[in-house]
Design goal:
The chain has four domains: about 15-40 and about 120-155, Molybdopterin biosynthesis moea protein, domain 2 (Alpha-Beta Complex), CATH 3.90.105.10; about 45-115, Beta Complex (Molybdopterin biosynthesis moeA protein, domain 3), CATH 2.170.190.11; about 160-310, 3-Layer(aba) Sandwich (Molybdenum Cofactor Biosythetic Enzyme, Chain A); about 320-395, Beta-clip (Beta Barrel), CATH 2.40.340.10. A six-stranded mixed β-sheet has the order 19-16-20-24-23-21, with helices on both faces. The chain has a five-stranded mixed beta barrel with strand order 25-28-27-29-31. It has helices at about 55-60, 135-145, 185-195, 210-220, 240-245, 290-310, 365-370; strands at about 5, 10, 15-20, 30-35, 45, 50, 60, 65-70, 75, 90, 95, 105, 115, 125-130, 150-155, 160-165, 170, 180, 200, 225-230, 250-255, 255-260, 265-270, 280-285, 320-325, 325-330, 335-345, 355-360, 375-380, 385, 390-395. By secondary structure, it is an alpha+beta fold.
Amino acid sequence: MQACTGAGWTAAPAAERVPVGDALGRVAAAEVRASWQVPPSACAAMDGIAIAAGSVAALAQAPGSARLAAGAFAWVDTGDPIPPGLDTVVERERVELGGDGSARVTGPVPAGLHVRAAGEDFPAGELLITPGRRLGPVDLAVAAAAGHAALEVARRPVIALIPTGDEVRPAGAVLGPGGVTDSNSIMLAARAREAGARALAGQVAPDQPDVIAAAVTAAAVTADLVLVIAGSSAGRGDHTAGVLTRAGGLAVRGVAVRPGHPVLLGYAAAGREQGGRGAVVPAIGVPGYPLAAAVIFELFAVPLIAALQGAPPPDRPVQWARLACDWTSSPDLEDWVPVSLSPAGGKPDTGAAVVATPGRRGAGAVSRLLRADAWWPIPAGQAKFVRGELIAVHPRA
């Protein structure tokens, strides 16, 4: 487990070695260098005959035509090593065989044509993958070609999710008056796995500070990040701020973001309740409304999960769109608005081929996320927008 200590975060994430075929989506924890050069020797890049280009020039009978005696060339298929003394491949389509075993070559034959030089792809020792890179299919193929059967990757960080609330029921439970299904932990656990983490969702904790604190302290023993879902505001049943203060420490209470303003940022110490110092891990008090939970997870948990793997924060791609309606936002907060995207229709005059339609207001409606294709982050200080205005949105992960 990577822990936060008085000296700061440990310099590098814990690593493990996995077969190269199992490393998709993992973050490289060490340099990957070529064990050998590729290709190992000069080889044919086409099916045809291997020749010495100089012999064609010497035997040319007419512009663009030469006849080679039997034994002056060798048949090769794509990938075959080039025989010693030969340096060029003429594709089959330009070779005419004679009855005496000779071959007539038509067209120009520059030296080195259709030949992959030894080490052309990469030489031995070349740096191919740097630490912190999230590995994709091509990375795995390159590593295998370079002689690696296994790779050092960052251990997947463990994210503990603790849903709270007397009114919250597990998925599938019949709801009574005021009941709420625990959909947030399912959503955030899935998003954590997408971000490269292992997600451990606990049972719903009732609105009892002692019970929640015990769950947080226990989670800090094995987790790299603890998420306490709901209870972050200032209502009579909201205990997360006090729990984090008691279980470790509270650094931030509320941020200028909507939805998600009442988020709590702090840490939890394993064994703190028993007087032990234990490991210290970051903790986030996630607001209970689904939109707020989603926004806060993207803004704070996703970059932290990347950092725990030694990777940079993920890029948020930008797409330009035309606003479908007038819109007013609070000038005092950074406002994250879910929008649906649809074709603009007709020929776009500014390069924006889509229209962005904001969903109805309200952070408690999980269906807004279902219908949203992108987030529209509105910086603080910007309040009014008019229909047809060009806006920048971030397609949802």
